[in-house]
Design brief:
By secondary structure, the chain is of the alpha/beta class. It has 2 domains: 187 residues, 3-Layer(aba) Sandwich (Rossmann fold), CATH 3.40.50.150; 91 residues, Orthogonal Bundle (Adenine-specific Methyltransferase, domain 2). 35% of the residues lie in helices and 17% in strands. α2 links the parallel β1 and β2.
Length: 303
């Protein structure tokens, strides 16, 4: 049985994220840690951090290195790690503004927050703004325009909750001693080698022309970026690291010729779709590095 640290028992993602891995965390952890633990865990595209928090609760790594290309995301992680009490105080004030009965007042406050240029405020105020917007925006999207500004409309929730104090305190405990980097994924894992496990979770290759949930930064994430990620994955494996990557089924052509990988198709339920009756199970890929002979795609396990 996995040992759970009571100090971080509530640790879980504090941001809503399209494609978050909470439902798949146990499957990914099994693929990541075939020996049960690892010296250094890398997650260079951390996003909501579901896999990291699952590993932290199990206490199965000695050190963790997390990164993301989105400066707003990394700022939130840094503030939760280092200044969680100050963050909670500001979120309390935001919560009071979203607790009013008037939908128009809540909506107006949302757009007031969204209009703030994050470069003009300090790290804690900036982190509180990011969390408040993420918890009250439409469908939990985390999307930025080409100028790098958050551009999701208001979600119109009847009772939005922007402050989960227990979750934030547990996350702060889990992040204690963790290295954080606002950088390209290849930079974050540059030192990964033997004794390391790496989980790559990029913005997915779109499954259709309308499924464009790739704008987590102003630059987006293109096919060339996915090909670069595959090359980075292979380089890390060549240095002795064990690697796992997730993606949509549409990414299969990018991965199917990669040497020394196993490609599993897994079913997962996704809740983000503008058409309600199209929300449901979808097929995704889980790519795992293996030693020895290359293997190709296989059907999902029935275990």
């Amino acid at each position: 049985m996995d040992e759970t640290d009571p100090g971080i028992g509530l640790a879980r993602p504090f941001l809503k994220y399209p494609g978050g891995k909470s439902a798949l965390a146990s499957i990914i952890v099994k693929a990541l840690l075939p020996k049960g633990r690892v010296a250094t865990y890398y997650e260079p595209m951390v996003g909501g951090g579901a896999v990291f928090f699952e590993l932290a609760r199990r206490r199965v790594f000695d050190h963790a290195v997390l990164g993301d290309a989105n400066a707003e995301v990394i700022n939130v992680y840094e503030v939760i790690r280092d200044e969680v009490q100050s963050l909670i105080r500001i979120l309390m004030a935001h919560q009071a503004r979203f607790d009013v009965p008037s939908l128009e007042a809540r909506k107006a406050y949302y757009y007031e927050l969204r209009a703030v240029n994050p470069a003009t405020v300090g790290p804690v105020v900036r982190a509180a703004r990011t969390i408040a917007l993420n918890k009250t925006c439409f469908n939990g999207l985390f999307r930025f325009n080409k100028s790098g500004r958050f551009n999701v409309p208001y979600g119109q929730y009847p009772k939005p909750c922007v402050l989960h104090e227990g979750v934030l305190r547990a996350a702060s405990e889990a992040l204690r001693g963790v290295s954080l980097h606002c950088a390209d994924f290849s930079v974050t894992v540059a030192r990964a080698g033997k004794g390391s496990a790496i989980y790559f979770d990029p913005p997915y290759v779109p499954t259709s022309t309308t499924a464009q949930f790739t704008a987590y930064t102003g630059a987006g994430f293109k096919i060339a970026d996915h090909e670069q990620l595959r090359s980075c994955f292979e380089a890390c494996v060549s240095r002795g690291a064990h690697c796992v990557a997730s993606n949509s089924i549409t990414a299969l052509p990018i991965w199917k010729s990669a040497p020394h990988v196993r490609i599993d198709r897994i079913e997962v339920r996704r809740a983000i779709n503008s058409i309600g009756d199209k929300r449901g199970p979808v097929t995704e890929l889980l790519v795992t590095s293996i030693k020895g002979e290359r293997r190709g795609p296989r059907e999902p396990s029935e275990e």
